TrEMBL record:
Record key words, sorted: Antiviral defense
Domain spans labelled CRISPR type III-associated protein: 16-188, 260-409
Any GO BP: defense response to virus
Keyword Mitochondrion applies: no
Pfam entry (one): RAMPs
Protein name: CRISPR type III-associated protein domain-containing protein
Coiled coil in keyword set: no
Domain of life: Bacteria
InterPro entries per the UniProt record, alphabetical: CRISPR_Csm3_endoribonuclease (IPR052216), RAMP_III_fam (IPR005537)
Amino acid sequence: MTKLKKVYYQLKLSQISPLRIGNGENDISDNDLMCDSRGIPFIPGSSMAGVLREKYEKLGGKDTEKIFGIIKNDEATASHIIISDAICPWKICDNVKSEFRNVSISDYKISIRDGVAIDKWGVAKEGHKYDFQVVETDVPYFCILEWSGDDEEYENEVIEGLDILVKDVVKHGIQLGARTTRGYGKMKVEARKHQFDFPNCIDEWLNFNPWSESDFSGEKVYLDNEDKSEDGQFDRIEVQFKVIGSFSIRVNMERIEKAPDSVVMVNKDDKPVVPGTTWAGVFRHHMQEILSHIMSDNNDERTALDCLFGRDKKDNTLSKIRFGETVIEGGKSYVLTRNAVERFTQAPKNSALFTDEFWQGGVGTLEIMIDKGKMSKLQRQLLEVSLLDLNNGMLTFGASTGTGHGRVEVMKLNVNGMNYTENLKSGSIGFLEGLHEH
């Protein structure tokens, strides 16, 4: 006799980088954040399902259409798994007082970031300025996966399917929301699993609360002492650097009176950050500039960077290179007031007095991840030269780069876990030859 089974996975998601999930409205910014009735951000189950399904397919999982369902033409198949929204708990333990307290909007830092497209001269393109909301928090999100099936389906869909998927997201984490290739939406994942075999445990199932950590047996799907090898899908480059002079990733303060015209972008811990979008922009612009000097206008290789960094046009190619968000440790801020002057008389211009905040000094780490086998030899060489120029102060980032800001010196370079700092410092080419090319 075939027995019915139910399996519950409780995923506990902890934010590593800012999350950007829009609700389709533009009341506060051009792209407002998805929030519940309390004003607290959450991640829709549809977003969770899409990311988990894509990961499952990349892992070569069995019976994808049975587990996640399918809609094809007029035919639709129900999913064997129910995926909840990823929401925050109503209460959380206060580590200081060891007491449970209600979660409130004050536990979340919701900020507005600016986005802009620039031309080859580094000037903002007309009509390409926009802003969007992001959220940062130390409060975890909880998502429940509920699978139902019989003994035969259990072997194929759980043991050889969902267990492998959940182990992978615990091992490598998960990225959710928009601009994941630019460092947004990184999550650390913990998982617990509990299963019921019917009809033996109906009473236990009726009293079971999948949102409660204590209701799980405590069994971790993936244990900390198991293999922690690198994600096999990516080549990884880590660049540890120190800031030479100062820099500024500007946040416009026009909404606040009696504040500088712009301040340095900071995270929830008030530490300055360099977003992945900034890194992607300066590397792409620098590599394109190099390419323009070595290739003719009608050469097909001129489009090499579109294939690597992605396209925003009709074909919408996803970026194959990923830049993480860099947090700057150390250093201090200062405010600089300056004004524009007339070209010939050197007299100050009217309404041309600016006060900006800059960040002096500090160290950080730039993380670059590239899909294995998706980079050409030319793209690799362009990236090598750009890293050399980064160390030499010729590839700069942030505002006012034309006046000496945004320079760094590389302290350490790791490529897939191997140290290539000396190769970079000597100015030799070839230190990225270990990357997987197509």
